[in-house]
Amino acid sequence: MQKYIYLLTIIIFTLSCKNNTDTKNYKYFKNNSWYISNDLIFRNDSSMSTKKYDKAQNKMIDDTLLFPIFISDSTIRYKMKIDIGKYDDNMTYHVSGDTIIENNVGYDLKYINNEPKLILYKANFPVICSSKNKNIHFIETNHFKHVNFLMSGFTIGDKIERTILKTKGIYNYKKYTIEDCELIENPDIKIKIIGYNIIYSIERQNISDNKIKDIIKIVNNKLHFNPEYSPMKKWTENSDYEYEFYRWSLQGVVISLSRSKYIGSIAYKNLLNNNKWILNYDDNVQRAILIETYQNEKPKSTLIK
User: Fold this and answer.
1) What are the phi and psi torsion angles at 173 (to 5°)?
2) What confidence tens digit (pLDDT) does each residue in 222-241 have?
3) Which of 53, 73, 215, 271 has the fewest CB within 10 Å, making it most exposed?
4) Closest CA to 216 of 199, 233, 229
5) What is the 3-class SS of 213-269, one letter each residue?
C-alpha cells in the first residue's frame, strides 16, 4: 500500500511540474527574478520568503526560504512566511510569531515605460513587480477585465485638458504627485490628476435625492451586486455629524455614494447642514499602474514653479 501511495505522490508531483513548464508564460519566470521595490519575491519557479521570526531582533529574518510556485496562463499560486501579531492601544504593532500563507492571484504581463512588469492582482490593491532583466520580451496579456465607469463625461486613466481645470491643491508624495482640481465651469466636479493631465480619480458633489435611485441602479447593473449600506448615524460618540453611505468594491473599482448631516450647535445648522450627496469613483488597479507610470515625477507647487 505504501508503495502505491509513494508512486501516486511522484505522479502528482511530476504532473504539477509539467503543468508549470507547459504554461506559455513559464519562460518569463524560469532563469529570471521578479522584485517588489527591492524585495525579491520570485526567483525561477519559486517564491522567496523570510525563514522565521527572530524574537531577539523582533522581526522576520533570513530571506532564503523557497516555496515552489504554480503558474497557469492567468494565475499564480505561491506561499510566503509572514509575521503575525496585534496592535496595542497606541496602535503600535507587536510581532509575536510567524505563519505561512498561500496566495492564489491573477496576473498580467505588461510593459510600463517600456520596461517589463508583472502585475499581481491581490484582493485589496494590485502589486507591480519589476525584473532587473530588461531583455525580457513578451506579448502583453489582458487577463484582468477592467470595469470602467463614465462620470460627467470623464473616466479614470484618460487625458483631460488642463485649460478646463483649476488646481486647488498639490500633494507631493515620495515618488509621485497628485493634483486636486475642479472644473472651472462646474466646481461640483472634482478631479485628481497624476502626471501632467491623467485622471486619477473623480468626485461629483451636491447631488440631490431624486438622482440617487438611478445612480444605485446603474452601478448595481454594471457590477452585478448590491452595495454595502450604512444608514445615517454617528461614527464616534462625540461627533457633530451623522453619515450615510452606499459602497461598492469589485475588481479594484471602489465607488461610494455618501452624505453627512450636521447635528451640532443649532447656531451653525443652517450654515453647515448641506445634506447633499457625494459620488466618488476610484480604481485601485488603474491607480497602481498610473503611480508606476508617473513615479519620480518632479514635485509641484501652486505658489512657485
Assistant:
1) -90, 180
2) 999 999 999 988 888 788 88
3) 271
4) 229
5) HHHHHHHHHHHCCCCEEEEEECCCCCCCEEEEEEEEEECCEEEEEEEEEECCCHHHH
Positions of E strands within 138-197: 165-172, 177-183, 189-194
Phi, psi dihedral angles at 17 (to 5 degrees): -65, -40
Short-list 162, 165, 198, 168, CA closest to 180: 168
pTM: 0.82
The distance from CA 7 to its chain's CA centroid, rounded to whole angstroms, is 43
d(CA 224, CA 218): 10
46 and 117: one domain?
yes
Q: Are residues 168 and 122 in the same domain?
A: no
Number of domains comprising the chain: 2
Residue keyed to cell 464616534: 236
Helix or strand run (H / E) with residue 202: strand 198-207
Q: What is the residue-wise DSSP string for 44-108?
A: TTEEEE--EEETTTTEEE-TTEEEE-EE-SSEEEEEEEEEEEEE-TT--EEEEEEEEEEEEEEEE
Residue 171: all three cell numbers together: 500633494
- Tell me, what amino acid is at 40? L
Statement to judge: residues 288 and 172 lie in one domain: yes
pLDDT of residue 203: 98
Verify that 167 and 237 share a domain, yes or no: yes
Q: Is the pLDDT of residue 252 over 50?
A: yes
* Kind plus residue range of the DSSP H or E element containing 22: helix 2-22
**Contact between residue 74 and residue 86 where contact means Cβ atoms under 8 Å apart:** no
